[in-house]
Design goal:
about 450 residues, five-stranded antiparallel β-sheet, Trigger factor, domain 2, 16 helices, Alpha-Beta Plaits
Length: about 450
Amino acid sequence: MNISLNKASDLQGRLTVVVTEADYKEKVEAKLKDYRKKASIKGFRPGMVPATLIKKLYGQSALVDEINHELGHAVSDYIKENKLNLVGEPLPAVEEADSIDWEKDTEFTFHYDLGFHSDFKVDLAKMKEIKSYEIKADKKEIAETVENLKKQFGEQTHPDAVEDRDLVFGTFTQGDWVEKSAIPMHAIQDKSKKIFIGAKKGDTLKFAIDKVFVDAKSLALATGKKEEEVADLTGEVSYVVEDITRQAPAEMNVEFFDKVLGPGKATDEKTFLTEVEKIVSENYAREANYLLRIDAEKALIENVKIDLPEEFLRTWLVRINEGKFTPEQIDQDFDNVKRDIRWNLIKNEIAAKFDVKVEYPEVVEKAKDMVRQQFGGYLSSDQPGIEEMIEKIAMGYLSDKSKGDNFMNLYNQAFADKVSSAIVENIPHKVSKIDVEKFKEIAAAL
């Protein structure tokens, strides 16, 4: 097999692969012998079908399959061995491939159009200094934070009857289907809350399961099913209330201070408020860090020069979208496409430089965090069975292939977060002190 690359320019080229009879003959013949052993054709005993008939029936398909197999490996290996800076994927020259005579030809030539990006280097230490912000919290922010903390660290009670904003634990039953469930009342439509409000432990509620939840996502979360499966949940179900939990706001005492800050950090309200101010400042520091990540991304895209094969990219985008978009439609979003490609190239370069890796447990934990956020403040780690339920929902989400690859989506998010952390830790930046309102103005302008 002969492979050669002809570069029309620094950004475009054509890969030519010549497949000779010596490359495929032995393997095709082996395939046909295997077909002959297994072929079941009327009028012939198993294994006794004439080789000429087998070749007539299966010869061309065996040849095509083997050559495609050889081509795939050859092209992939050539790209890796030569460390080509590809953009997109190799595009087969369709018209030339269509002209091949599979019955008569013994030597086959295939062409692939390639697009390349230019060489580039990312040196964070030499980047122009960008702005970062230190935000000072005011008394209003502190007061709001204290109220939220009182709700968050309040006592979890188990009242006799359900009220709005409670978390209801119970079991669904409909025919043979039985499912343990945790239902936050905010997941129930306002007009249907009367079904639950006032219910006591041990009560059996009956309702149309497809009518009471605010959306399919809430129903899926409550039943442990995939979102696309809940359309099958219809009709009346029985729901036995087994427990009710409610968050009662905490009182301003040492027990509350210890829950928020840790034992011994504050023994009076003044000290507690000082510590809370630190917490608020840390929260705003995270928000400022997020803004810094965005500004750093902009700076890198603007200052790291990467030339792209625009003509090739347009052709590639039309081809991979299989006619879903016209060239005119692709042109409308082409600047964003080029930006995304450049940013991905920069991210990968930084990841390699700083050895950024994402392990499987990190993706699982990200999925579990997503579930916790969906439940809001209703979940408490000391609630029996909560962690098991969170893990079950998270693992179900990660294994659900029906709406794309959820695992890879979260993996890519975790990867992007780690790359961003590497960037902000190493890019020069100057800190400016501003108040909360000014920061909100800056953030809103993004």
